[in-house]
Amino acid sequence: MVKNSEKILADHNVSITNPRVFVLEVLLENKGPITLDELQSTLKNRVAKSTLYRVLNDLKKINILNEFTSPENQTVVELSLSENDHHHHVFCTNCGEVEDVTLSEVFEKQLSDEITNIHKTSKYRIKEHTLELIGLCSDCD
Amino acid sequence: MVKNSEKILADHNVSITNPRVFVLEVLLENKGPITLDELQSTLKNRVAKSTLYRVLNDLKKINILNEFTSPENQTVVELSLSENDHHHHVFCTNCGEVEDVTLSEVFEKQLSDEITNIHKTSKYRIKEHTLELIGLCSDCD
DNA sequence: AAATAAATGAGAATTATTCTCATTTACTGT
DNA sequence: ACAGTAAATGAGAATAATTCTCATTTATTT
């Protein structure tokens, strides 16, 4: 049976190599956003640092990886395998933990209405949006 | 007559020095978010690079400067002199320009309701939020 | 105006990311 | 399965961004 990570690579016409599989496996297991630091230390003995950066760029190129910066300036990375998994992020300002949040449909509708209005008054054509929620997780609260 | 920038420093018990005044003047003139690169090149001959970083940290400490990262990984900086100037940002993915956007009161209310709901279901106590709108400015569209 | 404390400039040190190149690994056609 | 070719990797050098060091200058206090 073909592993999940190998299928992902094959589906995107990217050759299957050990580093790519290792990185994908960690991202898949983690299920959600992960700090670059954490990813690096998890993969330290299996993937060279330069290769990790290359693999992450490969995954960005095939559009299955999002990268963003936390309010504390940590690089954070997250798989996004399907087009329709629109969601946002909550950050803990104390421990740096990041998690996904999905907003209610009602609210996403209100948001897209607001964006339509902005489009009328501003000189921008808006393609995407990201909402970041910043606070404390229960451990740090 | 005391200059605006000097008053700001005095009001926050920060000593008035040339580099601090120069940085503040550029930020005040610019009125809105500015790229660190742009700030650096504007101040190149007046403020040493290390001092610029120090001054920006000083301003962060007294809570009159926001720093964030654009979707293209540019560091962006912005004065926020009053508590009640809550607003968000639009980014042009092509030229990197950033501008402020103020959302309608109706929408900010909807957003804060949504955050209240999230608080009920998630393990986070949310203190702040930032909404980033990403698209193309009229020049690049 | 002198004494003391704080801030600055210049460049060294550190950290994050990209690049180079010799070696290894994966894919292609047989 | 196998040789040949193209692509990917590891290790460390190169670059870029940010912080740190320390001798000198500037601000504040007396």
Walk me through what this model shows.
Two copies of one chain form a homodimer. Chain A is of the alpha+beta class and 141 residues long. Chain A has two domains: 1-81, Winged helix-like DNA-binding domain superfamily/Winged helix DNA-binding domain (Arc Repressor Mutant, subunit A, Orthogonal Bundle); 86-141, Ferric-uptake regulator, C-terminal dimerisarion domain (Dna Ligase, domain 1, 2-Layer Sandwich), CATH 3.30.1490. Helices cover 42% and strands 25% of the residues of chain A. Chain A contains five helices and six strands; from the N terminus they run H-H-E-H-H-E-E-E-E-H-E. The first copy, chain A, has helices at residues 4-11, 18-30, 36-43, 49-61, 105-121, and strands at residues 34-35, 65-69, 75-79, 88-92, 98-101, 124-137. The first copy, chain A, has a three-stranded antiparallel β-sheet with strand order 1-3-2. Chain A has a three-stranded mixed β-sheet with strand order 5-4-6. In chain A, a hairpin with a 5-residue loop joins strand 4 (88-92) and strand 5 (98-101). In chain A, helix 1 (4-11) crosses helix 2 (18-30). The radius of gyration of chain A is 17 Å and the shape is globular. The model of chain A has no long low-confidence stretch (mean pLDDT 94). Strand 6 of chain A pairs antiparallel with strand 6 of chain B. The structure holds a DNA duplex (30 and 30 nucleotides).
